[in-house]
Write a structure and sequence with these properties.
Blueprint lengths: L12 H23 L6 H20 L10 H12 L6 H12 L5 H28 L7 H50 L4 H11 L5 H16 L3 H11 L3 H16 L3 H61 L1
Helix pairs in contact: 2-8, 3-5, 4-5, 5-6, 6-7, 6-11, 7-8, 8-9, 9-10, 10-11
Length: about 325
C-alpha cells in the first residue's frame, strides 16, 4: 500500500510531493517575513494616550458629556448597570479611582467592573445551590448547606475586589522597580534644559518599551500638567494613583522645588540617589535574610543524604561484623 492508493489517479505521488514542498516553502517564507517585521511596541500605548488626551480635553471643556461605548457586550453591560443605577452609588467613584490605579481608565472598564460585581455573587450562589441542593454532591446537614451557599455568595462578591487589588499591587511593584531608572533619565532631561512637562513626556517615550506602566503614569501626568489649572493638583494625582513611598517622596520634592524655586535637576538628582540607596539597602536586607531562609531546606534536604553517604558504609560494616560474630 502506497500513497497513490489514497489520491486520485489524475494526481500522481510526485505531483503531491511537489505541491507539499511548495506549500512548505511558502509557509516558511511567510514565517520569516513576519518575524522580520519591525513592530513598534509603543504604537498601541500612543494610541491609548491620544484617546485619553481627547477625552480629557472633552471633560475639561464639558464635564457632563456622556461617553459612547463600543461593542455589543459592553453595551449590554451598560444597560444592566444603568438599569440598577449602579453609577449613582458612592462606591462607583471609589471603583473608578481604583481602576485608574490599575491602569484601566476607560469608561468600559468601570461598566465591566460594576457588571461583574453585580453578577459574581449571583453566579456563585447559583453554582453552590445547584452543587449542594440539586446535584447533592455532598451529604450535609440543612444548616451546613445554607452556610455553604452563603459562603460561596460572599466569596463571589469579593472576587472582583480581590482581582482589582492584585492588579493594583502588581502595577505599583512594576512602577517601583522602574522608577530609579526613570529618575535618572529625568535628571538628564532637566539638565539638558527641558521643563518638567517635557521631561515627563520624553521619559515616557523612552521607557514605554521597558516600563510601560511608569511611562503611562508619566505621560498622563504630563497631560494633566497641561490641562489642569493647578500644576500641584496634577502631581498630587500622580502620587494618589501610584500610592508608594517612592512616588510620594518624588512628588513632594517636585512640589517643593516649584514652590521655593530650587533647581529641578538638583532635586531629581538627590531623589535618584536616595532611591538607588534604598534599593541597595533592600537588596542587602534580602541577602542578610538568605542564611535564615536556607536553614530549613538544608536541614531537610541536604543533611540527611549527607549523613547517609558518610555514615552509611560504616554502619553497614558494623552490622556485618556483628552478624558474623
Amino acid at each position: 500500500m502506497n500513497l497513490s492508493d489514497f489520491i486520485s489517479t489524475s494526481f500522481t505521488e510526485d505531483e503531491f510531493l511537489i505541491l507539499a514542498a511548495g506549500l512548505s516553502v511558502f509557509m516558511i517564507c511567510i514565517a520569516v517575513w513576519y518575524s522580520l517585521l519591525e513592530t513598534d511596541p509603543s504604537s498601541k500605548k500612543v494610541k491609548e494616550m491620544s484617546t485619553l488626551r481627547e477625552s480629557m480635553r472633552g471633560d475639561y471643556l464639558n464635564p457632563i458629556q456622556r461617553k459612547k461605548l463600543t461593542g455589543n457586550s459592553t453595551n449590554q453591560m451598560k444597560r444592566v448597570v444603568e438599569f440598577f443605577k449602579l453609577l449613582k452609588n458612592e462606591q462607583a467613584e471609589k471603583l473608578a479611582f481604583a481602576l485608574s490605579q490599575a491602569g484601566k481608565r476607560t469608561p468600559e472598564a468601570l461598566y465591566r467592573l460594576l457588571f461583574y460585581k453585580l453578577i459574581a455573587p449571583i453566579v456563585a450562589a447559583t453554582v453552590a445551590y445547584v452543587y449542594v441542593y440539586v446535584l447533592k454532591a455532598v451529604d450535609l446537614e440543612p444548616m451546613a448547606k445554607t452556610l455553604v451557599t452563603i459562603t460561596a455568595t460572599v466569596i463571589g462578591a469579593k472576587i472582583p475586589d480581590i482581582l482589582l487589588k492584585n492588579s493594583i499591587t502588581k502595577r505599583h511593584d512594576l512602577v517601583k522597580k522602574a522608577l530609579p531608572d526613570g529618575l535618572d533619565l529625568m535628571v538628564i532631561c532637566t539638565e539638558a534644559g527641558l521643563s518638567l512637562d517635557a521631561a515627563f513626556t520624553r521619559v515616557s517615550k523612552e521607557m514605554i518599551a521597558v516600563a510601560p506602566e511608569l511611562a503611562d503614569e508619566l505621560s498622563l501626568t504630563s497631560l494633566e500638567l497641561g490641562f489642569l489649572p493647578e500644576r500641584n493638583k496634577a502631581l498630587a494625582n500622580l502620587a494618589a494613583r501610584v500610592d508608594i513611598p517612592m512616588m510620594r517622596s518624588l512628588v513632594n520634592a517636585l512640589i517643593q522645588s516649584e514652590k521655593f524655586g530650587t533647581p529641578l535637576s538638583q532635586s531629581l538628582r538627590v531623589m535618584s540617589a536616595e532611591l538607588r540607596h534604598e534599593r541597595l539597602l533592600k537588596a542587602e536586607e534580602k541577602a542578610a535574610r538568605l542564611p535564615a531562609i536556607m536553614t530549613v531546606p538544608m536541614i531537610i534536604f541536604i543533611l540527611p543524604p549527607l549523613f547517609i553517604v558518610l555514615l552509611g558504609p560504616a554502619v553497614m560494616r558494623t552490622v556485618d561484623a556483628l552478624s558474623a560474630m
